[in-house]
Amino acid sequence: MGDLFKKDSEENKFFIYEFTVGPNGYQFAANIQSAMSTAESELMSVSERLEETEESLKKLTPECDKLDYILAASSGVLCGLLDVFLVGKPGESPIGDLTDKWFEDRTKDFAKLSGWTGKDNDDATSAVRYLEKTFKIPYDQRGAGDAGGKVFDLTPKNHHFKSLAHNPTLLGLFFSILDQWNDTSHFVTDGRVITLEGADELFELRGETVPAKLFFGFLNWFGHLISDMSGSSGSVSRGMGIPSPIWSWSNDIIAIKDKLHITPGEFDQSLNDLAQNIYNSGYDARFQSAQCIPVFFNELIVRLMYSVRRMITYYQQTEQQTRSFKALWKACEPFSNASVKRMLTVAHGSFCVVDAGDAAIRGLLKGQGAFDVGEFVMRLNIIGIGRFSISLYGEAKRAIQRMGIDREVVCLTRERTILLDYIEGLRCLEEVYDDESLLVFVQDLQNSELYIENFEKTVALAEKRGVPDKKILHNKAEIDAYFAPRRP
After folding, report:
1. Disulfide: which of 172, 302, 338, 453 matches 167 by Cβ 3.0-4.6 Å?
2. Minimum mean pLDDT among 10-14, 176-180, 234-238, 302-306: which range?
3. Structure pTM?
């Protein structure tokens, strides 16, 4: 395949004819109409891709106005104040008292499902005792006259935290089944893991097969965690619940490094000591659940405000006869669009600013000149920090996606422009070379003696083809003069 170039030196224009070499000689491309049909088909395809790409870009681009940002920030500040005054820290938390009561009731409910015959108004201690007997495990040493006394600083107050099998994590489940299988106990203390062999000689894991033992091992682990959720059966007042899932990972890190024969670093040890100290002060799974409440309300308020604003706008701008539930839901759906996600980022960011600011101030006041890290951590809402981090990750991910789609939009727009220019050029060529009615002069010359009248057609054709006027033969006289014999 090749291209045949023809240049008009006076007009400085190029004409490009695509051709191929066939068995019967040169074969030129199809006519202008065929080329235009192909170009229009390509233009339609590019336009559809451009429309889809622009729609994808629109979904990733937030369309928040000033009022949206104000409402989102206000929600964050309001829920931040709720966290400061109603969550606070363990022992001084009105919302924490409610979550303690809720966990106590759920412990009773689970005990009833397991066969406990107590009443709703009975003390939870009876339900806890029943669950401890039903879901017996070998690693419940408390450091008060039992084998756990061999472990340094193991007390009834900290044994839930130090015992790896009491951690509500995947590694906690692993050590629970391991301890039940081997009748052992694993504790973390002073940056190392201590194993007690023969922890409870009366314990025997139920099940005759490996799958059965794994099932009963999981059941014992879960049931015992529920029994300890509201504190042990011998707890006074609030008691020590199970560790928070987030801070118990400080134990898991030390356990993993110990099994890999890696000495835990000073940071690991300091983090583990900090986690144990705040646990001893009441920072357990119940209190961390209390921290979820203002974060949840912040999320709920922002999504609700987004939907209400869009719903009002929809009813204001849509005529009654054209309204539909599908269109209404598309207009105010508060889950999968970039606008509500941007509002959530602002709201959770504002929440974290208020919460962290209060925690830092309380840490300075408690330290009396120095910074009390424990006070700061207990008042810092880790759930809010985590939720804000997720929002920031989403913002960064969508920004990267927008950059890629922006480049694609630019390329498709250029391609569409080129195709439009190409089609416009084909239309110009079609107009210039629309000469079927003029080319019949050849037949007229062959079949009619009145050929002189057909010169007008040849003149019109020459003018249309851009032949210079001085080179056009306009009448018979000019033709005769052109073909007359020249004198020497």
Report:
1. 172
2. 10-14
3. 0.77
